[in-house]
Each structure stands twice: as structure tokens, then as C-alpha cells.
Amino acid sequence: MITTFVLLILTIQAKHKLKSHPFSNNQIKLNRHTTIEQAPLDNYANIIYYINASFGTPEQVFSIVVDTGSVTTWISNQTCEGCIFPRFDPNKSTTLQQADEDHSINYNIGSLSGKFVQDYVSLTNGNLNVSMKFMLANVFTMPGIKFQGLLGLSSYNDRQNIFEYGYQQKLLETSMFGLNLNRNPQQSILLYNNFSQDYLDQVVWMPNVLNHQWSMKVYGFFINEIDLTDKVTLKNGTIALMDSGSSCLWLDEEIINYMLHRYILANCISSYSCPCNSPFYPNLNIYLAGVKIEITPEHYMIPSVGQYCKPCFSKAGQTTHDYTILGDPAMQAIISIYDKENQQFGVYQGNKLHKLLTFQIIQISMAIIQFVALCLFSYKFYLYKRI
Ligand SMILES: *[C@@H]1O[C@H](CO)[C@@H](O)[C@H](O)[C@H]1NC(C)=O
Ligand SMILES: *[C@@H]1O[C@H](CO)[C@@H](O)[C@H](O)[C@H]1NC(C)=O
Ligand SMILES: *[C@@H]1O[C@H](CO)[C@@H](O)[C@H](O)[C@H]1NC(C)=O
Ligand SMILES: *[C@@H]1O[C@H](CO)[C@@H](O)[C@H](O)[C@H]1NC(C)=O
Ligand SMILES: *[C@@H]1O[C@H](CO)[C@@H](O)[C@H](O)[C@H]1NC(C)=O
Ligand SMILES: *[C@@H]1O[C@H](CO)[C@@H](O)[C@H](O)[C@H]1NC(C)=O
């Protein structure tokens, strides 16, 4: 009930905020004639999204993972131990500056270490070409992982991402960026620099709760219409990290079990061999402050062996620091906008007002029913006492 109540207040607040226009805080000043930039992304099996980026002069091109869940941009050094090819040859770049700062990164799936350098990094055939710090990896220990590099886009304020460098170097109107991740064959896009006021007026913003990760407070976990919010026992389970670098959803065990045992597994031969479509698969609806993310079976069922699919769920826990992680299946359900300067996260044309309104009406009706029941009970009790 507490969650219901909080949710009610929050949705109302969110609606109010929408009306009162979050951009009036004058930090986002935009030119109406901003040039329009969209960088196409490559999509591997709807679970990894890559962008072509070139490094150095003359340019050396890499297909690197777009990751809102980590901060450091890196590619492989020429003599890197364990890295795949292509690798960057620093001796061939005339604009490279060695920063000589050692650095290592730990991901859920392994780690890598190397050194920072400064050089030109460019996207979309040089349309954006910024001088920035990135890491050259010298040791790569992520078994089975074949990444040429990674574009770090988390909210961590101690290091800057490509769009912040671009903004500082006056190549961009804003350091904001957005992700429109889709399922094949629909094109996926990284958006930057081309946010018109019109566009921004349709974004619902939410505050970022942890400064090192894009992280949202979750007010409701619903399987179809069933409220499982109270079942979440993970300590940080009602904080969700928005992570394009995670292929799956990392959820509280209770939620996964509920979905698997009530709806999904009965259709499957094994947990890896499920039909890709079934009318019995539920939607997972996640309510953030003012936005509902509706994750459908098309988002979370991913190809497995043969003609089969499997649900792309992992148990959140120690490896995720007990956070819920909303990876690609959730990202595909929204167009997400990242405003690091103001530490806020937005959803473009969020599944918001009308849907939330229905949701609120349901909640209100439930509250009314409970109230009426209570009245009836009290009345009966009163009658009983009088006898
Ligand atoms: C960016 O530009 C493209 C094409 O020029 C346009 O179709 C798209 O709507 C623009 N996106 C935004 C966020 O304004
Ligand atoms: C990236 O570059 C490769 C190799 O040139 C090309 O095949 C691919 O289509 C490019 N991807 C995008 C999204 O432009
Ligand atoms: C670059 O040149 C230096 C000095 O000539 C050499 O020690 C180093 O191994 C070269 N690096 C690569 C990656 O070839
Ligand atoms: C890249 O590799 C070369 C050759 O091993 C090495 O000399 C250089 O220091 C490395 N660069 C960085 C930034 O680690
Ligand atoms: C980026 O700018 C630098 C400096 O002007 C230049 O040397 C480099 O070739 C440019 N890179 C691309 C891909 O345009
Ligand atoms: C939960 O979040 C806090 C704050 O970010 C973090 O320090 C902690 O490691 C996380 N995990 C647990 C189990 O508390």
C-alpha cells in the first residue's frame, strides 16, 4: 500500500513537473537551428550495439560497443595481450599524446588494463571530431568477449565522454545524447546535437540517483497488471541502472521466478528452448518517476539454439551490487536521453500520461474499494456492538 500511495503522489508530481517545464532552469540553452546528427549503430542479435568510430590521424577505424553503463572509452593497443584485431597503432598517429596514466577497468565479465592517451576521436565520417582522452588496452582478460573497444557514456562526473569534449570544444550545441535502440532489421541510432526545443518538450526527465551510473528510482514492478513491487528484497533493487552495455535484464530473483514459473517455462522444452512467441508470455512493466517502461516478450526473448528463444533475464545480486539493471530489452522499449550536465535521464515520448492515468485510476478504484469495504466492516461492527 505504501508503494501504491507513493506512486500516486509521484505520478501526480511527475505530471505537474511536465507542465511546469523542466527546461526553464535555463541550463539547457538551445539554438533552434541546431544541426541534426544521427549516428547509425550496428546491432548484433539485438543484444550488443556498436558504433563505428575512428581514432588518430590518419584515422584508424573501430567498431566499438556503445555503453551507458561504464565511463571509459577504450580501444586495443597494437601489442595488447588478449585483445582481438583490429588494434590501434599509436606510432602511426601524428596527433597522439601520451598521458602515461595507468588505468584498469572491471566489468561483470572480466577486466582490462592499459594507459590513457589523448588523440582525435570521430564519429559519422568526421562530422564530429574531438580531441579526447581514451584508454589503450594492453591486457584484456574477458574470456569469450570480442570487443574492439568501447564508447563509455555513463554519468560518472570525474571523466568526460565524447559529447562533453565536443561541447567544450564548441563543436556541439549540447553534451546531451540519446539512444534509439531497436530490434533488427530496424536501424538503431545514437542521437546527439540535434535536439530541437520541440523534441525536448516531449522528453520526460527524471533525476539521476547515483552520480556514477545512469540510475533511476523504480516505483513499480508489474508483471502484466500484477504488482510485484513488494516482492523485491534486493537491497538496491528499486534502483535501476540504465545500461546499454547489458544484453539482458538483471532483476530480483522473485520477479524472474514469477515470470518463469507462472508464464514462460510451461511453454518450453528447457529454459533455453522456448518458442520465440507465445500469447502466454507476460509484459514486464516498470514504473519510473513519470514514465512506464513496457518490456514486451519481443524485447526479452532472444534467439537461442535452433528455432528457439530464451528469456534474457539474469539474477541481480552481488555482481550487480544488488541493483536492478535495465539492459537492452528495456532500452529497446524507449528512446532514452542522457543529460549528464544536469544529471538527469529522459524518455522521449514516454509511455506516460494516458497510460499512467489508467494506472492511477486502477489504483484509485482499488483504494476506494478498500475504503468502502472498511466502511461496511465498521458499520457491521457498529451494528454488532449495538446488539
Ligand atoms: C535528427 O535529424 C534527423 C534527420 O535529419 C531527423 O529525422 C530527426 O528527427 C532528428 N532528431 C531529433 C532528435 O531532432
Ligand atoms: C561500420 O563499418 C563497417 C565496415 O566499414 C560497415 O560494414 C558497417 O556498415 C558500418 N556500420 C555503420 C552503422 O555504419
Ligand atoms: C612504436 O615505436 C616505439 C619506438 O620506436 C617502439 O618501441 C614501439 O614498440 C612501437 N610501438 C608499436 C605498437 O609498434
Ligand atoms: C602501446 O603499445 C606499445 C608497444 O607495446 C607501447 O610502447 C606503448 O606504451 C603502449 N601505449 C600505451 C598507451 O599503453
Ligand atoms: C580530426 O581532426 C584532426 C585535427 O584537425 C585531424 O588531424 C584528423 O584527421 C581529423 N579526423 C577525421 C576523421 O576527420
Ligand atoms: C547498494 O548501493 C550502495 C550505494 O551505492 C553500495 O555502496 C552498495 O555496495 C550496494 N550494494 C549493497 C549490497 O548494499
UniProtKB/TrEMBL annotation:
The chain crosses the membrane at residues 361-382. The active site is at 67, 243. Disulfide bonds join 276-309. CDD domains: pepsin_like. GO terms for molecular function: aspartic-type endopeptidase activity. Residues 49-348 form the Peptidase A1 domain. InterPro entries: Aspartic_peptidase_A1, Pepsin-like_dom, PEPTIDASE_A1, Peptidase_aspartic_dom_sf. The keyword Protease applies. Pfam families: Asp (PF00026). Keywords: Aspartyl protease, Disulfide bond, Hydrolase, Membrane, Protease, Transmembrane, Transmembrane helix. SUPFAM superfamilies: Acid proteases (SSF50630). GO terms for biological process: proteolysis. Belongs to the peptidase A1 family. This is Peptidase A1 domain-containing protein. It comes from Paramecium tetraurelia. The lineage of its organism: Eukaryota, Sar, Alveolata, Ciliophora, Intramacronucleata.
